[in-house]
Amino acid sequence: LEENRSEAAHFGTILEDVVAQEFTRRTGQKVKRRNAILQHPEYPFMLANVDRLIVGEKTGLECKTASEYLKSEWEGEEIPAPYLIQCQHYMAVTGYDAWWIAVLIGGNKFVHKKIERDEEIIQYLIKLEGNFWNNHVLQQVPPTIDGSDASTDLLKTMYSEGEPESEIELPLEADMLLEQLEQAKQEEKVASERVTELENRLKAMLGKYETGLANNHMVTWKNVTTHRLDSTALAKDHPDIYQKYLKPSVSRRFGVKAV
Q1: Are strands 98-105 and 218-220 parallel, antiparallel or unpaired?
Q2: What share of the chain is helix, strand, coil (3-state, %, to 5)?
Q3: What is the per-residue DSSP string for 149-187?
Q4: Is the pLDDT of residue 103 over 50?
Q5: Class of domain 2-134
Q6: Pick from 73, 31, 83, 71: which is nearest to 54 by CA?
Q7: Do 92 and 127 form a contact (C-beta atoms < 8 A)?
């Protein structure tokens, strides 16, 4: 997963130039890099590292790449909410009037749209970011733990390794959380079985065909070839090579059992 993320970031950086050049070709607007971290003049905690600024205007350009599977998010006037907020943040920091966003979808479809400055959203962002800065960053108080990737990554960073054979008495709240966890797991199981059932019914409709067309959707069930290292056979046939390239790693496995 980490390798896939780093590859996506790598190619995203390479394709940023391609997207910027195509934006200039299609619109005639020249763009320039701003090789500096920009800072809001009144709220120093608000920073921005913008992709491009448009020459001669108080506007900027955000360059994106997107998967073919996400093309519906860019149809018509639609712009994914995180990118919309990102551009409004840039306008808050720079004081600019508008921001363009250009995206290369699936490597072969180019879309560019203009986002006008929205003072209501900007004031909300200033309040939200100010609250996070003052109440969490300066106070060194982590935000409320939830189900987001950010919370998961934070816990992995803060508590990457446990102390062997250590034990702690949990607060009373833990029993309530455990009951909710058990209920959530049951609901997840039912939902997962329902998803599998619906997928299987569609697979039966496809049969030997890789692609099926419905009124509003395209369904695929394609052949995928993967090459995995047979570590068991390698350890048996070439134990010296196996040991040489064996890299130990430490992670934490969460579990619950009745006592």
Answers
A1: unpaired
A2: 45, 15, 35
A3: HHHHHHHHHHTSSPPTT---PPPTHHHHHHHHHHHHHHH
A4: yes
A5: alpha beta
A6: 31
A7: no
Split at pLDDT 50, 70, 90, the class of 153 is: confident
Q: pLDDT tens digit string along 189-237?
A: 999 999 999 999 999 999 999 899 999 889 999 888 888 888 888 888 8
Where are the chain's structural domains?
Answer: 2-134
Contact between 113 and 67 (Cβ < 8 Å): no
Angle at CA 130, nearest 5°, toward 142 and 64?
85
Q: Is the pLDDT of residue 251 over 80?
A: no
Q: Is the dihedral of CA 15, 18, 20, 23 positive or negative?
A: negative
Q: Rounded to whole angstroms, what are the CA distances from 193 to 132, 200, 204? A: 39, 10, 16
Amino acid letter, residue 44: P
Pick the residue with more confidence: 161 or 84? Answer: 84
d(CA 12, CA 18): 10
